[in-house]
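Throughout our pipeline, every protein is held as a single compact record rather than as scattered files. The remainder of this section carries one protein's record, kept here as part of the documentation.

===
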Amino acid sequence: MKIDLTETTSSKINAALVQARRDIGTPAIGMVLTLVIVTDEENAYDALKSANDASHEHPSRIIVVIKRASRSPRSRRDARLDAEVRVGADAGTGETVVLRLHGELVNHAQSVVLPLLLPDAPVVVWWPDGAPPNLAGDPLGALGQRRISDTYASENPQQALGERAAAYAPGDTDLSWTRITPWRSMLAAALDQQSLKVASVVVEGEDENPSCELLAMWLADRLQVPVRRTASDGPGLTSVRLETKDGDIVLDRADGSLATLCMPGQPDRAVALKRRDTAELLAEELRRLDPDNTFEAALKFGVSKLTAPAPAAAEAEVAPTDSPETVTGPKADAAPAKPAAKPSKKASAK
């Protein structure tokens, strides 16, 4: 069932939701959370489709906030709220409210969303694209216990990672981090099977891919070894090499779906490591509502290394390869500068 409301208010939207539930014969609310999606018209369809798919695992009230840019000064002064209410088969396993904010109301979206939140239920705010630098400081972000962004959709992913680290607050997360969950699980399991000391790591993947950077920072933070980041044609992450004195542990995925795990003294094995769609990533993030301390540690570990130019010592270390690289880890720190030579007595006399 769909109900269109033009020039409406939050109270009328709530009344429409109650009436729609009665009309379809489900007056009780069986949803576990409120998911607020902040997006634009271009990305609203894909974001709502992913949220509806994720609602089969997490029944929720989905509130889509679309801020409509006004073209003329007069229309920018006029505030108007249009809404579309969906329940039943048109809204997954929960209910959906699509809000279109016009004029001055764009700057007060939180006042429209607040009355529509489910009582005594957690709130998750998701920006599929165009996330603010400070998620918790955003008026809509302040409503949520969890705030989800996606730096992969940013024009400059590395800069976006730096902004996320600088303004991190408990509850922040990113889908670029969620994308590497299978990689982290596979690598952790491989190290549990081998009593080998890792000396260095090489992470290979698409250039400007924030998932590759996050995986490199996580490995450098957890293993406390030098981690070198190399570029490939993708798709996404393609290879991780853990270098040890007894042989390398290699997890290689060239086609984006099936990977090969190579370990010293063991036969190579094929493992499923397919690239997941947005609905699967969102469903994973909705499973936990507590702060992700591991993400925080990885995010804050290498921000300065991602933004600062590579030191000369690190450049010399990776010079044999032709592809652009970013180096993280303890070895990437520049060596202390040698003290300047003291001037000779003759020079002082001059």
The longest helix spans residues 10-23. The CA atoms of residues 129 and 305 lie 25 Å apart. Residues 306-350 have pLDDT under 50 and may be disordered.
